[in-house]
Design brief:
2 copies of one chain form a homodimer.
Chain A lengths: L2 H9 L3 H12 L3 H11 L6 E7 L5 H14 L4 E5 L10 H11 L6 E5 L11 H12 L4 E7 L3 H9 L2 E6 L5 H8 L7 E4 L7 H14 L10 E4 L8 H17 L2 H27 L3 H12 L5 H9 L7
Parallel strand pairs in A: 1-4, 1-5, 2-3, 2-4, 5-6, 6-7
Helix pairs in contact in A: 1-3, 2-3, 2-6, 4-5, 4-10
């Protein structure tokens, strides 16, 4: 099957073709990389929602309740799980819920877990590539579920159109928020498991922190939604808040700004990765020759490095 | 003063010129970088001894006793301290000892602490550059004092001609040795503070581990020296062991191998640093243009990155 055929299958939402491509990307098969490049040109339509929170905050259960709300609106859904503790790894929770809703497996929900593949935390090329494939498949909304642990999450939030931060009472979340700088990147705060003690304390602390920040008149001010994912309390409200934030982004220049930010991030990641490949491909014999020259003090490390890098001095 | 004059001053061992150059390198003054490149061609004569051990192992006190032994042989000495807990930061201990020996300040001992300048552990360009300046100044032996904490030390040992690992009884050192892989890189083991309980246990454990390793007939087998740095016990023996190791290196091909290894390490560090500089210098307007193209899906991240990197596509 040629490239155009494969591309068309993915654009038509074919699950098997998409799964095959994702495996190919993981294994760095040249054909897959080439297909991915074509696919990128057909992306940018899906709405991307980052869902970040500590392990055990109930992110998966929350998504399991939230997704059916969007499915009722006929929106096609993708889920990328990069939390290694997520039950999505097996697809269990969501699978069960979806079955409950639709009396069968819902083909318009595509779930992929990136948790087990050498996960190091934070944003990876694999995450972005998976988002692109789901986007090209025609998913209207893509949820990216990640652990709340520092710098990595801030990156996820940069990539998302809407960044949801999930907190739970009694987990020392206030300190976490301050530490991770998550206050700066969250568009919506969810206080989940509000049946637990301390939900009000957490809400008050969060509101206090939000009040310390000054917002411009046309700036988005993060809301706080209280949920109980298992009973479904607050879930409709959360879905409305996501759509309200999307309206906010589209009505102004913010959406364009976020998309450019994401493009810049991807460009810098691609440059970094290409430079690494470049170094790995430097001719070993040429390096050995330079090492000999250095050991004999015929040159110095900086000049030798520039010879390797600067192609006007030495073609590679 | 022109470059040749500055170079000659340093080659003549001028302390002020050397200190000025080191400050210039730290501040990335272009003249200083240029001078450093000239200096490199005059290096490779000094003998480099790495002294590694946990904070509190007594490395500085040990050096304070060891250095006078080499000074009595009229060897000129350099010390680079990259242990942030080293008393060399103020030069106190060594200064006192040297005064005791020579009834005045000894101008043939040059000490520089790199501990306070954004120290991150392990080997840095600053360490290597400082070694090069001292080498060019005509120091016969340069001691590099570093903390014993994992990968960083293994790098220090790669750069040293003789790697001394300093252990003390009752600090759980056996486990440290196994963990850090220091057994593989140490040329000489020192058990310091042998007046403490557990010195014999530590020696037995260490000997046991050394016996598990098989050595080729012409391979160096690390010795174990017991010292009490404060009383001076074992210090002469340690100095002899360093010189014996130097003889071993020179008599075979090992010295050349180590020097090449060091040159290779410096080359790779210089390539990495040049690539970073290269990325930092990419034209911002050109990047902005590519980001716009990406946001509009006129190109994909990988192709855009290759445009930036590959000079046949786009000259920078």
């Amino acid at each position: 099957m040629n490239l155009a055929n494969k591309l068309n299958k993915i654009l038509a939402g074919d699950l098997q073709a998409a799964a095959r491509l994702m495996r190919g990307i993981d294994d760095e098969v040249p054909d897959a990389i080439e297909l991915l490049e074509s696919i990128y040109l057909h992306t940018g339509r899906a709405y991307i929602v980052g869902v970040t929170g500590a392990p055990g905050a109930g992110k998966s259960t929350l998504l399991g309740s939230l997704i059916p709300v969007f499915r009722r609106e006929k929106m096609k859904v993708g889920v990328v799980a990069i939390d290694p503790t997520s039950p999505f790894s097996g697809g269990a929770i969501l699978g069960d819920r979806v079955r409950m809703q639709s009396q069968g497996v819902d083909k318009d929900i595509f779930i992929r877990s990136l948790a087990s593949r050498g996960w190091k935390g934070g944003l990876s090329r694999a995450t972005l590539n998976t988002i692109h494939v789901m986007d090209a498949m025609g998913k209207d909304i893509i949820f990216v579920e990640s652990v709340g642990s520092g710098q990595g999450d801030i990156d996820i939030a940069r990539v998302a159109d809407t960044a949801i931060v999930v907190l739970t009472p009694g987990m020392g979340d206030e300190i976490q928020i301050m530490k991770a700088g998550i206050l700066e990147v969250a568009d919506i705060f969810v206080i989940n498991k509000t049946d637990r003690d301390g939900a009000e304390t957490l809400r008050n602390g969060l509101e206090g922190m939000l009040e310390m920040k000054t917002y411009l008149p046309d700036e988005w001010r993060p809301g706080i939604i209280l949920t109980e994912a298992i009973s479904g309390k607050g879930i409709e409200e959360l879905a409305r808040e996501v759509l309200r934030h999307r309206e906010f982004l589209i009505s102004g220049t913010e959406m364009e700004k976020r998309r450019k930010e994401r493009a810049r991030l991807e460009l810098m990641m691609a440059i970094e990765s290409s430079l690494l490949t470049y170094v790995e491909r430097i001719d070993r014999d040429y390096l050995d020759k330079l090492v000999d020259d250095l050991a004999l003090r015929k040159t110095n490390p900086r000049s030798a490095a520039l010879k390797v890098i600067n192609p006007s001095t030495k073609q590679l």
